[in-house]
Amino acid sequence: MSQGTDSVFVSSLGKGDTLHQQVLAAFARCRISEEDVLRNTQFCRLLATLSQHVDRTGLTQHLRRDLEKAERDLHAQRLSWLRVENLLRVLQEIVQEKRFSKASADLTEEDKFYGTLEQCLMVAQCVKQMDVSSDSGEDPSGVLGLTAERVQRLMPPEQELVEMKQRLSSELLQHLKKKAVSILTYYQPERENESEGLRDVALSKLPELLDAEQKRARSLTEKNRENAVLLQRQTHSYLSELLKCMNILQCLVLDLRLKAQKDLDRKKIEYFEAKCEIGLQKIRAEMLEVQLDTYTRDKIAAQRKITEKLRAELTSSELDKQTLESKLTSFQIYGEEFEALAEEYSRLRREIATKSWALKEFSS
Q1: Cβ pair 22, 48 in contact under 8 A
Q2: Which pLDDT tens digits describe the chain residue by residue (364 residues)?
Q3: Is the same domain home to 150 and 113?
Q4: Does any domain span residue 13?
Q5: What is the DSSP-derived secondary structure letter of residue 54?
Q6: Do 51 and 98 fall into the same domain?
Q7: Do residues 167 and 160 make contact, with C-beta atoms less than 8 angstroms apart?
């Protein structure tokens, strides 16, 4: 396509054209979202072209016709097999019902009919099994060396077969009618107590009823399949939106958590500051209480007198210090010779003090 066609295609999608909806409907089984189709225009165009040549399952028209023909042939073969199989099972049901309902051990004509029918069914089943074994490539003689001809020799006499076949149709119709009545009363329980004529009229409409039920079941199955595809698509969209919402919520949680943590830290700091201030006030109160208990008025007056006396002595000592410092300064003027004489004088003073102490000790 040209560039102009591309622009027309994109603009048509942007204006709400249903082409992308047709693409999604044509490939409903594929996990393609509407956003993918709108975002990839070339891919959407390819799918739109393919949808004209393939069906919803992905098969081409030629393969679809071959498949439909094969399905029709298979349906015909299956229908033929089902007819024979259903007839065989119905006959087996007739024999089983008679066997379980038999109350007398006397051999009657009816028992003879059912015995002949059962024997025929057993022989037919054995022959059928041998035919299946021969088709699969196994030894047709089997384990016991039997063949289909030898098994067929076990069939009842010809006269009994003729009598059984003459009665078989009526027994079969009676049994099928009984089953049809049971099916009818299952779908319509109110007809159980109706007369025979009304029930026969209802039985004539039973195929239509079963056909309608079958069509209803097929439509429900198709609807369920479409709903499953729709549910899968909606689930995918829901999960995508849910992931986006989770990302947004995660960002909001992180942002709000940081702000809340900041406010919480500030409030914790204020709390600890207030608690520390209360502790300091308690310490000060305890100190004041200890001071009040320790220092009475008499003690405070005595301490004041002692303090005044010490201050006076400190003042006197400072004056003496100043006097001595002035004398020391005047002595330092004389230089090193005076310093040597001062040291010698100090030494002599120490010796005199030592000898005086020694003399005093000897005298005592």
Answers
A1: yes
A2: 444 434 433 333 333 346 666 666 666 556 666 666 677 777 777 777 767 766 666 677 778 788 889 999 999 999 988 888 888 888 888 888 777 766 544 556 667 777 888 888 888 878 777 765 555 555 555 556 677 777 777 777 778 778 777 888 888 888 888 888 777 778 777 777 777 677 777 777 777 888 888 898 999 999 999 999 889 888 888 888 999 999 898 888 888 777 777 888 888 899 999 999 999 999 999 988 887 877 777 877 888 888 888 888 888 888 888 887 887 777 667 666 677 777 888 888 888 888 888 777 766 5
A3: yes
A4: yes
A5: B
A6: no
A7: no
In terms of domains, do 162 and 88 share one? yes
State which H helix or E strand residue 135 sits in.
Answer: helix 109-135
Domain boundary among 148, 165, 195: 195
Token pair, residue 31, equals 């996990």
Residue 309 within any structural domain of the chain? no
6 lies in the same domain as 114: no
Cα separation, 170 vs 94, in Å, equals 12
Q: Quick check: 296 and 290 in contact, CB under 8 A?
A: no
CA distance 1 to 42: 10
The domain boundary residue, chosen from 171, 195, 219:
195
Ramachandran angles phi, psi of 345, nearest 5°: -65, -40
Amino acid at 295: Y
Question: What are the distances in angstroms from CA 55 to CA 26, 50, 59, 65, 202?
Answer: 7, 9, 6, 11, 41
303 lies in some domain = no
Q: 158-187 and 206-294 helices cross at what angle (nearest 10)?
A: 50
Extract the tokens encoding 98. 């008679």
Residues 6+ apart with CB under 8 A from 21: 34
**E strand spans, the chain:** none
Paired strand residues for 304: none
Q: Residue 290: inside a domain, yes or no?
A: no
SS3 track for 241-258: HHHHHHHHHHHHHHHHHH
Q: Which domain holds residue 350?
A: 334-364
Token pair of 60 as six digits: 């081409």
**In total, how many domains does the chain have?**
3
| Whether residue 136 sits in one domain with residue 100 | yes
In angstroms, rounded to a whole number, what is the distance separating the alpha carbons of residues 186 and 278? 89
Same domain assignment for residues 133 and 30: no
